[in-house]
Structures are given as C-alpha cells and as structure tokens.
Amino acid sequence: MSPDIPNEADHSIAARDIADVAAVEVITTAAVHLMSAAAVKCGLAEDAEEAGHLDLAEARILINALAGLVTSAAPDIGNQHARSLRDGLRSLQLAFREASVVPDPPGQGPGERLTGPVS
To answer: What's the predicted TM-score (pTM) here?
Structure first.
C-alpha cells in the first residue's frame, strides 16, 4: 500500500483523536482558519499585494462562510468564545471595506446579511 493512501488504522486513529476534541475547539479552529485565510486575501499579510495574495473575491467568500459559522454557532459555544469570534469577523469586514476600491453599500458587504451593517 502506498504511504500516501490512508489505511483503516489511520482512519481509526484520526476518529479517536477527533472524538477527544470538544465541539467548541473544532468550531474555533475552523473559524481561525477562515479568519487567517480571509486576512491574507484582504491584504493584511505583510507582503500580500506584492506577493499576489490580495483577492477580494476570495476574501468575500471566506468572510461569508465565517459569518455563517459564527452566527450559527454563537448560541452553542457561549458568549466568551462567540464574542472574540465576532470581534475578529468585524475586523475582517472592516478590512475588506477599506481594501475595496468601490465599497459595498452598508449592509451588503461580506457577511453583513448575517451580522447586519458594519461601520
């Protein structure tokens, strides 16, 4: 069997490992990945524009996904976790607006149909 193809034992170990992780950790980890990717696509990385990472179309998709995750998970993960995720989401929404040559009208930016207008 090729070392690149996972076998049943690998799947069993992965399932057992993920079973030990609390839902809030899985959700916050996914949110952090979305935030990191969106930040780079919004041009917040040190050399994003020079390196060709600035991509507002991709950033919009990532921020929309993040808004959906944060909005739907907030009641279940508790205020402490939800607050920091909302703060990160809002910062990305503002960064997107700032990076846009033609900003979206209020309430129509990425994720704003779920979060309301961001200013």
So the answer is: 0.83
